[in-house]
UniProtKB/TrEMBL annotation:
The keyword Coiled coil applies. Keywords: Coiled coil. GO terms for cellular component: cytosol. The keyword Coiled coil applies. This is PDCD5-related protein. InterPro entries: PDCD5-like, PDCD5-like_sf. Belongs to the PDCD5 family. PANTHER family: PROGRAMMED CELL DEATH PROTEIN 5. One of its GO terms (molecular function) is DNA binding. Residues 3-33 form a coiled coil. It comes from Pseudocohnilembus persalinus.
Amino acid sequence: MDPQKLQQQYQQQQQQAEKLQQQEQMKDEMLSQILTPAAKDRLGNIKMAKPEKANQITMKLLQVAQSGQLKEKISEQQLIELLDDIAEKEKKTTSVKFQRRGLDDDDW
């Protein structure tokens, strides 16, 4: 490959990484504004254990904040309630169906 193309690709990757970092920083700043310190700590713990769930919660919190539905900072208890609501929605009912064999004349 051409060294110039490689350098351009490298620069593009760096720019994308910087954009992602800036977006993460903006998310963190917004979360600091809408969450109490205890709630932010809890969200951080969730992020370490289940990153995809933490991302889902973060997106939901940011949507609520951007729509103007928040009147005060979200407390740890409110965050727990939100987690419970999400868990209930994701709960899947498992059912087991037994397929019985029909009566066969040879069995008797």
